[in-house]
Amino acid sequence: MSDIRHSLLRRDALSAAKEVLYHLDIYFSSQLQNAPLPIVDKGPIELLEEFVFQVPKERNSQPKRLNSLQELQLLEIMCSYFQEQTKDSVRQIIFSSLFSPQGNKADDSRMALLGKLVSMALAVCRVPILECAASWLQRTPAIYCVRLAQALVDDYCSLVPGSIQTLKQIFNTSPRFCCQFITSVTALYDLSSEPCHSSHRKRLGQGKDHGGAHFPFSELSLLCL
Question: DSSP string spanning 57-106?
């Protein structure tokens, strides 16, 4: 991994991010030939944190910041990678390596990028990403799942008026993701008439001003049954 890192240091941020996905694709494809569930060690995780999430390896270094255009280009690179990779096992392990929380300073960047990637996948109907996100939601601690659900609700119920219709189509796009997403959304809202005691939950229809939009909870829940 050290040789790969040295070659990536000579590249600009976007080409380094694309290249690290290429190298890890080869690495994990080889690992999967020898073991159905290879152990992901720290080497690949550290490469992804440094060259995708822009978290410097040296402690005293300042983190790099992508501008808005570069971030959009990074999302397009990732969308293309997951769409073009035909082996689900490789997609899943790369997605897990990218977005499984590590309990370190990269987690905020990791979660922010995950929210934007899944939001983009919903908008442009990238099923492989939604399937990977469904697996991620199934195995990840609830506190992180709630953060992803909140990001998607904000995007599709608050940010762009009328885009809530896209959420109503996710059952047809990816039933697995729809069901896992609904499970996470229930942690955001109090669906009972009893007082809400959880600090991160809110009553459905209250909280943020959604510009007249409401979350289509009942419609999506019925589809999942």
Answer: SSTTSPPP---HHHHHHHHHHHHHHHHH---HHHHHHHHHHHHS--SSTT
Q: Which residue has the tokens 């119920």?
A: 157
Taking the C-alpha atoms of residue 26 and residue 169, their distance in angstroms, rounded to an integer, is: 34
Distance from C-alpha of 34 to C-alpha of 27, rounded to nearest angstrom: 11
Neighbour tally for 167: CB within 10 Å: 23
Tokens representing 108 are 């905020």
Q: Does residue 117 contact residue 79 with C-beta atoms inside 8 Å?
A: yes
- Helices 2-9 and 42-51: crossing angle in degrees, nearest 10, is 10
| 103: alpha, beta or left? (left if phi > 0; alpha if psi -120 to 50) | left
With contact defined as beta carbons under 8 Å apart, do 170 and 184 qualify?
no
Instruction: Enter the tokens of residue 13.
Output: 């941020």
Block mean pLDDT (10 aa), the chain, length 225: 88 95 93 79 90 85 85 97 95 96 93 97 95 97 94 85 78 92 83 44 45 54 51
